[in-house]
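User: structure tokens for this one?
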Amino acid sequence: MLSRFSWTTIFENSCPRKSELIQLRPLLQLVRKIIDLLLYGNFFIAFCAVAMLLQTEWLVFGQLKWTYLTTFSFAATLCLYAIHRIVGIQKVQAFNEKYRYHIIEKYQTHILIYAVVGGGVAALLFFQLNWKNQLLIIIPSLLALGYVLPFFGSKRRLRDFHYIKIFLVALVWAFITVILPLVEGRQYLIPTDALLFLERSVFVFAITIPFDIRDLTVDQHIQVKTIPSAIGEQRARGLAIRLLFANGVLTTVIWKLGVYSLPAAIGIGLTYLLTSLLISFSTKERHDYFYTGLMDGTMILQFLIVSIFTKYSSFFTLH
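Assistant:
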């Protein structure tokens, strides 16, 4: 049997020494800067929009094709979220010590450049879209602009009205990532598309609830009521998880109707389970990486899992 001294020696030899940690510090700082660039430069959320749009094309048409619409969605998301950061930081000066607000304020100029470039690219690509999508995109674009810009009295945005922001986020995201690619792919909509729209709306709604939990203190400061402020953190988490469970049932219905393959339905269901697990750990005290990274990242996760499951669908075939 090893002595206590032996265990201590093994432990000390297996742990990085202080000098080694100091040597790693520049690398860790670089990694954190890259993460901050992706998250607060809004590139990550733009990739999330692309992932959801491509998932719709893959599930319905069985192909992944980068089009003008794909780049438009990336650029428009980059622009809108950048504007949202810049305008929003002016309303939360009292919370600048929070990490994400500190980073956003520090790199406002960079974020503004991303907004201008993204907006310019989106404006150019708008004229490359088919005329149906050009018409369809007007209303969600106006809603998105109203969400981030203070068009209303007392310098209010749509997100500053009680309870409305989560519904706007869910509906606009579902419209852009479901309706537009469907219209681009076949030029018309069919009744089952409404179920796809509903499923995506509920998914985005559910993963947005944790963000309202994160923002409880800030929303109380600017006097905006949200679902978590009305029913409490615990019930809000429960609501989000129940919505994902209901979405699992809806996914089964969509599979039974022949829109989703069995592997796709299983993949989507699996992401709902993983997302529910993440939601159960959401509190307003958690670091913003948990929300802006992991919670938003569930959109990319779903795309990857669904793509893998459907590509290797032979594993789900009974012999």
